[in-house]
Q: What sequence folds into this?
């Protein structure tokens, strides 16, 4: 049976060159980067070289990059760290209804501590209106957090316009760029952000390592307490192999991003065109053009999304119904609900996310498999029979 992986939004395969870069630090080069002897200095140099590579992809200073255990920690450090540092100025913050749970749950935790959060609605394409951000600002607003691109439907948000609004009022602006870093440009000065979260395993690097960009003028406090690593903002011995892998993946993305993503986009468009043309009563979720190169989120009416996922799995094709972080929860997608999908369609979405390793032959195989699976499921669906009459 052929194996086709189309769940790259959940995680990407580790590139061979990334693994090769990591291996010495998983075996012989095992020093603690805080040690001052030669082996510690070797590890420290590897961490700082990697910091330079991540910073290059951000267009930032290396000293503005803080390594974390992943995107979730980066989001929490950005949101809670800013809230605690700025609470003397106010307790109001702004976000959107379609953020990743790492952001939403960080804000919900802060609400239990007395902070106030405005969750902005989105349009049918999952887009935040910059005007609604401006209207929601108050004299005590201390932070705005809007994701760069949505992890479920791929919609790219108007970050630059929102940043302009935030800058006019001198309000700190954070973006969760976990889905975009290494896939589309994330130059922090062009985006206009003060804080940006990224994760290595979304760009062909290892799991368990991420980064938070912190503009040097941004006031932020640590949320963990221990040693003085990472400028005192993220105590704990650095994950040297992971950081080295993150740096190598960032270096490769810097050199290949435009060409790599153009190829992914062509395959994605072929997949979209063929599926929408072959499966009736199906439609695209998210913005038609302003979306991640590898993201395709479809609603296939009259079938359960999980049934399609399981059916495709029997054909060796890996897809998802949405965020991997929400997989154990069978509630409807909060993203699709915020976008205003009809209640009867909320459990009928499929996310197919492509990566650099995918080929045209794999895409064509996945198309055939999905058409077959949907056909079999609909043959058992009384709702589909009623709709056809």
A:
């Amino acid at each position: 049976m052929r194996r086709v992986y189309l769940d790259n939004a959940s995680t990407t395969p580790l590139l061979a060159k990334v693994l090769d870069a990591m291996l010495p630090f998983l075996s012989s080069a095992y020093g603690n980067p805080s040690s001052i002897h030669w082996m510690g200095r070797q590890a420290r140099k590897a961490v700082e070289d990697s910091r330079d590579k991540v910073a290059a992809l951000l267009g930032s200073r290396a000293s503005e990059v803080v390594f974390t255990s992943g995107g979730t920690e980066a989001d929490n450090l950005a949101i809670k760290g800013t809230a605690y540092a700025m609470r003397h100025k106010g307790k109001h913050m702004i976000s959107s209804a379609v953020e990743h749970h790492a952001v939403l749950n960080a804000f919900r935790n802060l609400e239990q501590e007395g902070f106030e959060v405005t969750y902005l609605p989105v349009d049918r394409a999952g887009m935040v209106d910059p005007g609604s951000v401006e209207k929601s600002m108050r004299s005590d607003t201390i932070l705005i957090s809007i994701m760069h691109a949505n992890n479920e439907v791929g919609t790219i948000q108007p970050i630059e316009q929102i940043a302009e609004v935030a800058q006019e009022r001198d309000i700190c602006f954070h973006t969760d760029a976990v889905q975009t870093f290494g896939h589309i440009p994330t130059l922090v000065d062009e985006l206009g952000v003060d804080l940006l979260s990224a994760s290595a395993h979304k760009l062909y690097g290892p799991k368990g390592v991420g980064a938070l960009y912190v503009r040097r003028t941004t006031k932020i406090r640590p949320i963990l307490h221990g040693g003085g690593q990472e400028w005192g903002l993220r105590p704990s011995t650095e994950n040297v192999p992971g950081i080295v892998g993150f740096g190598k993946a960032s270096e490769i993305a810097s050199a290949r991003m435009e060409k790599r993503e153009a190829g992914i986009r062509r395959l994605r468009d072929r997949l979209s065109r063929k599926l929408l043309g072959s499966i009736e009563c199906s439609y695209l979720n998210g913005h038609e053009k302003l979306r991640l190169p590898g993201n395709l989120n479809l609603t296939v009416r009259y079938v359960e999304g999980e049934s399609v996922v399981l059916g495709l799995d029997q054909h060796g094709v890996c897809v998802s119904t949405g965020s991997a972080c929400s997989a154990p929860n069978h509630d409807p997608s909060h993203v699709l609900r915020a976008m205003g999908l009809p209640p009867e369609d909320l459990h009928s979405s499929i996310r197919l996310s492509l990566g650099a390793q995918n080929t045209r032959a794999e895409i064509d195989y996945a198309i055939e498999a999905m058409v077959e699976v949907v056909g079999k499921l609909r043959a058992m669906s009384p709702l589909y029979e009623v709709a056809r009459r």
Remarks:
- The radius of gyration is 22 Å.
- The chain has a mean pLDDT of 96.
- The chain is about 40% helix and 15% strand.
- Residues 16-253 form a domain with the Aspartate Aminotransferase; domain 2 fold (CATH 3.40.640.10).
